[in-house]
């Protein structure tokens, strides 16, 4: 049976996201596959030159989750499950690892949901330029972490194909109702978007919705995915322009985070539809607790 008890893990990930990453980033629309995760044989074999890895006990003020790369390596404190999920999940910035992006696993030992490890790693001088030039999806960090898991945890695994839920952001039958940004307008102070636009929250921490300025549909999909625990939001509108628009959160009887119609999209001429995509299950064949160093 696949483990899907991800809610508490998501809270830790999102808490760290507010410290380590931007408020939004462009979502990959590719299938979640081994081919998509790998950027070539060289990247797939990328390794840290120095790696310190120690189990730690959680304290009340400890930030637990996957941090982004440092200028010369990687430093984080995370559950073993988070390390596995990030290493073998869809390429994405570390802050953006949501519940739906956590690779579902089979045969994992129970301790992966309990053990926390502090990692302090450094890349070689020869690899430094490539490390500092990697994309915002942190493909070299993903690859280096996979190598570390194989070397230090003796990880052996394989994948099984699976169809997983997504929410497709599409144009409604009557067409989009979006206006282009005001020419030469200064963008307000707010959450920077991957496209270069800006979003500002309505209500405390954006609890009531968001106003977007010079933003794309990818930006909207990325903002929406932060509320969906049972599947990612994929931009399938086909709209490539920039727009100024407001999207409000509609009160529903469903717990927030589970109601897939919680955003009012009809005024924008948009809607969400349930769909599926290929996101394989990671099957753990062997995994050991490492010797601390």
Brief characterization of the structure:
The chain is α+β, with helices and mostly antiparallel strands and 293 residues long.
Q: In words, what does this structure look like?
A:
The protein has about 290 residues and is of the alpha+beta class. The chain has 2 domains: about 5-160 and about 280-285, no CATH class; about 165-280, no CATH class. It is about 20% helix and about 25% strand. It has 7 helices and 14 strands. The chain has helices at about 5-20, 35, 40-45, 80-90, 130, 140-150, 215-225; strands at about 50-55, 70, 75-80, 105, 115-120, 155-160, 165-170, 190, 200, 210-215, 235, 245-250, 270-280, 280-285. Strands 1-5-3-2 form a 4-stranded antiparallel beta sheet. A 4-stranded antiparallel beta sheet has the order 8-9-10-12, covered by helices on one side. Helix 4 packs across helix 6. The longest helix is centred in the first third of the chain and has 14 residues, at about 5-20.
């Amino acid at each position: 049976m696949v483990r899907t008890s991800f809610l508490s893990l998501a809270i830790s990930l999102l808490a760290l996201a507010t410290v380590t990453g931007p408020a939004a980033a462009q979502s990959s629309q590719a299938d979640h596959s081994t081919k998509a995760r790998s950027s070539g044989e060289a990247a797939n074999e990328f390794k840290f030159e120095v790696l310190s890895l120690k189990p730690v006990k959680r304290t009340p003020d400890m930030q637990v989750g996957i941090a982004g790369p440092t200028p010369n390596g990687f430093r984080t404190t995370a559950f073993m499950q988070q390390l596995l999920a990030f290493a073998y999940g869809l390429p994405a910035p570390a802050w953006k690892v949501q519940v739906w992006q956590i690779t579902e696993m089979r045969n994992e030992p129970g301790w992966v949901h309990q053990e926390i490890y502090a990692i302090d790693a450094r890349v070689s001088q020869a690899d430094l330029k490539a490390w500092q030039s990697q994309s915002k999806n942190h493909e070299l960090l993903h690859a280096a972490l996979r190598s570390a898991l194989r070397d230090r945890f003796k990880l052996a695994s394989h994948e099984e194909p699976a169809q997983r839920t997504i929410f497709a952001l599409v144009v409604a039958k009557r067409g989009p109702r979006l206006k282009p940004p005001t020419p030469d307008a200064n963008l307000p102070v707010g959450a920077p978007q991957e496209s270069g636009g800006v979003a500002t929250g309505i209500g405390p921490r954006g609890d009531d919705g968001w106003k977007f300025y010079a933003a794309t549909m990818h930006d909207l999909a990325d903002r929406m995915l932060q509320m969906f625990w049972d599947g990612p939001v994929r931009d399938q509108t086909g709209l490539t322009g920039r727009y100024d628009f407001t999207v409000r959160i509609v009160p529903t009887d469903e717990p927030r985070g589970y109601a897939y119609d919680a955003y009012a999209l009809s005024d924008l001429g948009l809607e969400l539809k349930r769909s599926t995509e290929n996101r394989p299950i990671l099957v753990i064949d062997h995994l050991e607790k490492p010797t601390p160093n």
